[in-house]
């Protein structure tokens, strides 16, 4: 004899699990906002991937009111979490050769020995990253994944003139891919949980 839980109980357990996991991941990425560190970001990423795996195999969806709460939580996690994760990935990828400015741009041609300022490229990268993740998460949750093509096209056209240096191209490609990958995974988690 196989014992099966009622569908409403499974949906409630799934809702509570997703809420707790997403809150935990959000806390970890907020802790890493000021100075991204690897361990909390790895744990947050693991929690999101675990939740996504659970949602993929789950036979039920979350109730509507909990779906709204999870959607708002997912948007916050997708948007805020992409910042420290992308910055940490960029730091690892460039081995500390490229110095970030306060507005998310990069300073190139600067030499630490003579104290020259160098050229600032890709200004406003932090703000643009937040905006691209908002658009990506909302587009996917709303069932419009084609929004990703629009985001990448607009960002590429807008940054085209600044991509002459190798450092700028490297940062643009790695940063965009890391940022959008995080946003897409979180958005997929929410989309699968509520639809």
Question: What labels describe this entry?
Answer:
elongated, about 200 residues, about 70% helix
What do these coordinates show?
- The chain is mainly alpha-helical.
- The protein contains 6 helices and 3 strands; from the N terminus they run αααβββααα.
- The chain has helices at 7-31, 38-57, 64-94, 125-141, 147-159, 166-194, and strands spanning 99-100, 106-108, 119-121.
- Strands 1-2-3 form a 3-stranded antiparallel beta sheet, with no helix packed on it.
- Helix 4 packs parallel to helix 6 (166-194).
- The longest helix has 31 residues, at 64-94.
- The chain starts with 6 loop residues before the first helix and ends with a helix.
Give the helix level as a range of percent.
55-70%
Number of helices: 6
Roughly how many Å apart are the termini? 31 Å
Structural class: mainly alpha
Evaluate the radius of gyration. 19 Å
How are the strands of the biggest sheet laid out side by side? 1-2-3
Low-confidence stretches: none
Strand content: under 5%
Q: What global shape is seen? A: elongated
Main sheet? 3 strands, antiparallel
Task: Provide a compact summary of the structure.
The protein has 195 residues and is mainly alpha-helical. 69% of the residues lie in helices and 4% in strands. It has a three-stranded antiparallel beta sheet with strand order 1-2-3, with no helix packed on it.
